């Protein structure tokens, strides 16, 4: 049920740095197929920093770790008709031979099986606004708590209740680090989030924190928040988008893509450019930390 690309398998066997990447950004994260360009740029940045990219997805009844160009094209062409696959959905996608685009949580589940220690994404899922009424909390957080991997992102998606997400990460004993910042970035913006547990200045420092954490805490992951550059302050737009999506009755996994599409429309596409850039930059940073970790032995 699990097929690992030769390049990825060789790197893991030799102890070389590998960075996992998700596929929901290809199928659900952008409109008009622009997620494909974002995924390709992320893979290029990982290679340029000296690591091997491992993009994860479910294709033709197999969990695939290390997708080729044709596979990425399939996800881009499928768009939101591909299943959004968290950890709970992987088995059904495999058994039913569905095209499954892995979320952060789904990708981390594969990382746990293969021993991949580093992942990059745009923003993680978390606690949704109004969670007290809906109990809508992303499975990303549970997988992060049970997977010994460091995830580089630009914080929790700005459509979420970010302070509540940070509180739950603390409860789950997931260290939240800031990449040269004191507060957790808020996806499009580098400011406005809660205070991080620790600030790190170099890839080597982040790698060492991760290494010591895994020696002491075992199976839980870490979050490394990198502020987007340039950033974009769109909180009023986000509030409007969330309200409109809620009013339309959208729920569950469909909320995030619906809100992001509306944000793109309301910002005249400015949010897309920021999103694409931060995904590539986060991938590069994850590779730098993975390389530093490999050098620690």
UniProtKB/TrEMBL annotation:
Q: Is Lyase among this UniProt entry's keywords? A: yes
Task: Enumerate the Pfam families for this protein.
Answer: Indigoidine_A
Q: Which InterPro entries match?
A: Indigdn_synthA-like (IPR022830), PsuG (IPR007342)
GO cellular component term, pick one = cytoplasm
Q: Could you say which residues form the signal peptide?
A: none
In Gene Ontology terms, what is one molecular function of this protein? hydrolase activity, acting on glycosyl bonds
Q: Does the keyword Cytoplasm apply?
A: no
Keywords assigned by UniProt, alphabetized: Glycosidase, Hydrolase, Lyase, Manganese, Metal-binding
Per its UniProt record, what PANTHER family does this chain match? CARBOHYDRATE KINASE PFKB DOMAIN-CONTAINING PROTEIN (PTHR42909:SF1), ZGC:136858 (PTHR42909)
Q: What is this protein called?
A: Pseudouridine-5'-phosphate glycosidase
Read off the lineage from the record. Bacteria, Bacillati, Actinomycetota, Actinomycetes, Mycobacteriales
């Amino acid at each position: 049920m699990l097929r690992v690309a030769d390049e990825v398998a060789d790197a893991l066997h030799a102890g070389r740095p590998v960075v996992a990447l998700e596929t929901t950004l290809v199928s659900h994260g952008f409109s008009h197929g622009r997620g494909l360009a974002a995924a390709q740029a992320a893979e290029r940045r990982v290679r340029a920093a000296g690591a091997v990219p491992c993009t994860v997805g479910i294709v033709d009844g197999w969990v695939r770790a290390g997708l080729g160009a044709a596979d990425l094209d399939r996800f881009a062409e499928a768009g939101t008709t591909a299943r959004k696959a968290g950890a709970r959905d992987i088995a059904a996608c495999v058994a039913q031979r569905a095209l499954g685009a892995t979320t952060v949580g789904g990708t981390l589940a594969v990382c746990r099986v293969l021993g991949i220690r580093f992942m990059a994404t745009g923003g993680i899922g978390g606690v949704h606004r109004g969670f007290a009424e809906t109990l809508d909390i992303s499975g990303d957080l549970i997988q992060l708590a049970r997977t010994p991997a460091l995830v580089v992102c630009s914080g929790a998606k700005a459509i979420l209740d970010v302070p509540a997400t940070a509180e739950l990460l603390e409860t789950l004993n997931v260290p939240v680090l800031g990449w040269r910042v004191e507060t957790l970035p808020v996806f499009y913006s580098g400011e406005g989030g809660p205070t991080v547990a620790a600030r790190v200045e170099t890839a080597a420092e982040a790698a060492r924190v991760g290494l010591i954490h895994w020696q002491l805490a075992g199976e839980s992951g870490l979050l490394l928040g990198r502020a987007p550059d340039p950033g974009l302050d769109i909180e009023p737009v986000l509030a409007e988008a969330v309200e409109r999506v809620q009013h339309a009755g959208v729920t569950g996994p469909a909320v995030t893509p619906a809100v992001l599409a509306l944000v793109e429309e309301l910002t005249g596409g400015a949010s897309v450019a920021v999103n694409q850039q931060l995904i590539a930059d986060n991938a590069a940073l994850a590779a730098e930390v993975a390389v530093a970790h490999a050098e620690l032995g």
